[in-house]
Amino acid sequence: MVSKEREVAIEAVLKACKVCQKVFNTLVKGETVIKADESPVTIGDFASQAIVSITLKKYFPDFKLVGEENSQALKESESLRKRVTGLVNSTLETNYSEEEIMKAIDRGTFEGGSTGNFWVIDPIDGTKGFLRGGQYAVCLGYTVNGEVTLGVLGCPNLPCNDMDEDGPKGCLFIGEKGYGAFQRNFGSEEDIPIHVSSIDDSAKAKFCESFEAGHSSHKDSAEIAKLLNISLPPIRIDSQCKYGIIARGNAQVYLRFPREGYIENTWDHAAGSLIVKEAGGIVCDMFGKPLDFSQGRKLSNNKGVIATNGIIHSQVMNAIKSVFKLNNVLLG
Ligand SMILES: Nc1ncnc2c1ncn2[C@@H]1O[C@H](COP(=O)(O)O)[C@@H](OP(=O)(O)O)[C@H]1O
Ligand SMILES: [Mg+2]
Ligand SMILES: [Mg+2]
Ligand SMILES: [Mg+2]
Fold this sequence. Notes:
Elements: H1 4-26, E1 32-34, E2 40-42, H2 43-59, E3 65-67, H3 72-76, H4 78-92, H5 98-106, E4 117-125, H6 127-132, E5 137-144, E6 147-159, E7 169-176, E8 180-185, E9 192-194, E10 207-209, H7 218-227, E11 235-236, H8 241-247, E12 253-256, H9 270-278, E13 282-284, E14 305-308, H10 313-326
Parallel strand pairs: 3-4, 10-11, 10-12
Antiparallel strand pairs: 1-2, 4-5, 5-6, 6-7, 7-8, 8-9, 12-14, 13-14
Bound molecules: adenosine-3'-5'-diphosphate and magnesium ion (3 copies).
One magnesium ion binds next to strand 4.
């Protein structure tokens, strides 16, 4: 059984990936804005969120959306507004006005919470990776009563086969609660079932983490890896592509240790965490608590993120406990 939500999510993410690829090839200086938290946002992020919002509305007129972006920067800049409107219309072959595009983006201001159904969109996750020509992902989740039940990741720059940089690139990851996880390569209609790695010896494991050391402590993860006898170098890539590579078995551990006080956004983890779980893995925070998507736009009940293939999960959690004890950090 394939739900209507799943079909629509795939359509929306594929169209959003198309606009991101288009933007990357034509992005010029001045089309990137630095947000209050000093992170970048590009015309690609705005166009992608507009396209997802418009596509969801076509099938679910009353949809609710928790989205990373809003139209403030477009209201303040005519050139950004025009570029984004042009990009959306050329990708969808439509003729929306600038106001309609901004309204579509601002559907993403929903607060989320523990009741009802809503979507969660990160229109470009890994904007820094996107700007570098590295990994990024369009990430769409669907939440029912505070629990993620559907996740689709679109990863335009990710190799389809393992981490083979020379082979074809661009794939979707799809997870639906109770129905497993799948990979669909761009240009194909076949959903290939995926499963986490069966490696049971942490010494043979590979781990992945943020490319940006400011998003996750590379120092802490190196100590944990040492304790687990992991000898292979970490896979450092941007975005929820990390969840994708755990789900299909290219790595066994994803470690994320943000700086003190940082609270994760739901859109940075909703789709990817469900895909790993549906592929047989375990996802929790650095204290071992499940990620709680019922708290609004942020994961206020959690700190950090750990995803594993399940088999070596308790070894990983034990290593985390001892490293943070050594560093005198209190673990709950
Ligand atoms: N100081 C920080 N610590 C942890 N995550 C951060 C951060 N600053 C930004 N982020 C988040 O990290 C995301 C990218 O994750 P990763 O490091 O895995 O690529 C960003 O998503 P966007 O690129 O959508 O803004 C952003 O939400
Ligand atoms: Mg951002
Ligand atoms: Mg993000
Ligand atoms: Mg983003």
